[in-house]
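INTERNAL TRANSFER SHEET
From: sequence group
To: structure group
Subject: BTB domain-containing protein

Please process the attached sequence and return the structure record in the designated field. Keep the field labels unchanged so the import script can parse them.
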Amino acid sequence: MTIKGTLRFSTDSKDVIDIGDFKWFTKSVGYYSPKSRMMQFRADISCQPKEESRTALWSCSAAGTLAMANDAKNKQFVYHLWTASFSNGCTRFKAFYNNSKYENNFNAMERLSGKSQTSTDVHVKIVDSFYADLKDPKNALIEDPSDSALFKVNGEDLWLPKKVLAANSHFFAVLFRGNFKEAVDGFYEIKDLKLEEFIHFIGIVHLHNKHVDGKSVEGLLKLGDMYQCKIVLQRCEEYLQRASENEFPPMKKLFLIDTYKLHSILTDVLDQISVEELKAVPFDSLSFDVLRDLIVEKLRCIY
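Return from structure group:
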């Protein structure tokens, strides 16, 4: 059964509506567009679980429309379609719409019903969702209680299934096979890590979180490398591949490639960096042989 709901445009993000197991709000935001050289507007749509917990792993995929509406006349003019995925570390979606379409629909509805009766709505359909509070030994990730393991991270208890972690991480596969301290204490302690980053890591491993951005990519690369987890490293590479130069500078990408041996995006990133910039790279500090060799070859090219 599809869960649906409607949000009414507001300039105040305190107007929260419950839809399914999540609380939603929307806000109209004005911004300057360099392309059009004028003010434009977008809809910011936010989603968070109703049950707030530091140890929650969650996701929500949704789709919907932005529409002019007149309740009295039961009329609706749709001017934008949207789809979004929300999860740990990704609670807001920016819906950039065509402002001309907005104005045309607004004027049409105003002629039909009068400005005072016109509202702007965000229609929401929840397509798929997941919620698990990992401090619960019977959380939704645990299918077999005999497969569960207790982790302690920043003073919080997290119950996680061993099989999925072992299948995706050589580090955890060895950990669970070996006679480690957990056999005595009854738990595995993860030290010197941020709880939010570790839960984000777990979400990617379990395919409940695909989101990686400029704020999270370096922390996730560190975890993916430390725990020898290919799927997390791959998600980070995919983000760096598509991230624009304004969002994530190519030189910064280059040093991440060197640190974590991200060979799949190496040539694409080198193409974004000028010869003059490469000449300024502290060559002796690079540890990735393939990267060093390709930089040498690029510097030898005649442009």
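Handover comment: The chain has a mean pLDDT of 89. The first helix runs from residue 99 to 113.
Transfer complete.
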